[in-house]
Task: inverse folding
């Protein structure tokens, strides 16, 4: 199901309002019979705000749910032997090529020294070139295995699992002998599943807004980087997995591997007007209207509303760019010392 969302500039930031706010307060006049019969005067003569209407970009979007993922490295031994040292702990941040653990190197040192002696003896004996090559390759293999006695990290990241301890014997021949799993903390992306009915709307490079409710509704921008070329069947639905790449490094904003997120995949962008819902009133017939500030005071203007999102609502007709609306202040803000009243208030004349 497609919904509406507000975007500004190149859709880099989700905004709450489109206009310029003027904070004002006007002390309520003594109640009169006219204010009793005209509900508009209760707003005009009481605490109120002025809101300047401004055109903004409104995007039609497809809501999705996704999660943050990253490259995972399952690290096992290339050779067999006993673990003599483990240098890291679960959850630790490690760097590229940082030592993780080491095996007893004694046997591999002996193998290397023997291969080295054989190679030199072959050179001194002026053996056939094929024999010399054989000893040279054996030396290279022994040197490589000696290097494998130190297990190192293939990437910068966090240790997700650690399945080895000092004294353990590890076997290179054992399948899936994963000693350490490292989650790369650079280059994270978001994965999500798109229903098959929306496949035609998905394109590489499409802008997405990624929101993390667990991080105080942090919203980051990204772009679709991959659309799986075949569908899968999950939970009774046919879906197409997609990847979304962050435009900025999410680590700087506290995003970590595995977090769930809400995604707004933008489908189209158009110009429109969004106004605070507190600026909308309803007459006795049910008609929605706003109060326009004029040189002589105010006037009602009927409006047609679109979708409401939070404190803002889309106006499809009835206002134009530059209109100044008179709106009531939400009751929770009408407290002394609040931004809309008390010592922080400003008087405005109508």
Result:
């Amino acid at each position: 199901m497609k919904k509406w969302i507000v975007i500004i500039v190149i859709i880099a930031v989700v905004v709450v309002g489109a206009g310029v706010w003027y904070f004002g307060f006007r002390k309520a006049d003594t109640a009169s019979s006219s204010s009793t019969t005209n509900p508009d005067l209760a707003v005009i003569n009481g605490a109120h705000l002025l809101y300047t209407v401004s055109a903004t970009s409104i995007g039609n979007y497809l809501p999705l749910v996704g999660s943050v993922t990253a490259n995972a490295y399952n690290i096992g031994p290339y050779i067999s032997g006993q673990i003599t040292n483990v240098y890291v702990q679960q959850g630790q941040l490690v760097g590229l090529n940082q030592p993780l653990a080491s095996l007893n190197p004694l046997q591999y040192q002996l193998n290397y020294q023997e291969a080295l002696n054989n190679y030199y003896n072959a050179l001194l004996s002026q053996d056939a070139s094929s024999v010399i090559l054989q000893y040279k390759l054996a030396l290279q293999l022994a040197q490589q295995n000696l290097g494998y006695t130190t297990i190192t990290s293939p990437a910068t990241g966090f240790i997700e699992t650690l399945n080895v301890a000092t004294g353990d014997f590890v076997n290179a021949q054992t399948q899936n002998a994963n000693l350490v799993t490292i989650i790369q903390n650079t280059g994270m992306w978001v994965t999500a599943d798109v229903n098959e009915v929306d496949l035609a709307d998905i394109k590489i490079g499409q802008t997405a807004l990624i929101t993390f409710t667990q991080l105080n509704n942090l919203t980051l921008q990204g772009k679709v980087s991959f659309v799986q070329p075949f569908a899968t069947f999950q939970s009774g639905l046919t879906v197409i997995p997609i990847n979304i790449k962050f435009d900025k490094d999410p680590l700087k904003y506290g995003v970590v591997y595995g977090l769930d997120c809400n995604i707004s995949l933008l489908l189209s962008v158009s110009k429109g007007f969004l106004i605070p819902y507190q600026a909308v009133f309803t007459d006795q017939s049910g008609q929605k209207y706003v109060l326009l500030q004029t040189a002589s005071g105010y006037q009602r203007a009927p409006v047609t509303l679109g979708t409401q999102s939070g404190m803002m609502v889309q106006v499809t007709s009835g206002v134009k760019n530059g209109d100044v609306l008179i709106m009531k202040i939400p009751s929770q803000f009408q407290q002394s010392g609040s931004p809309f009243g008390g010592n922080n208030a400003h008087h405005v004349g109508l």
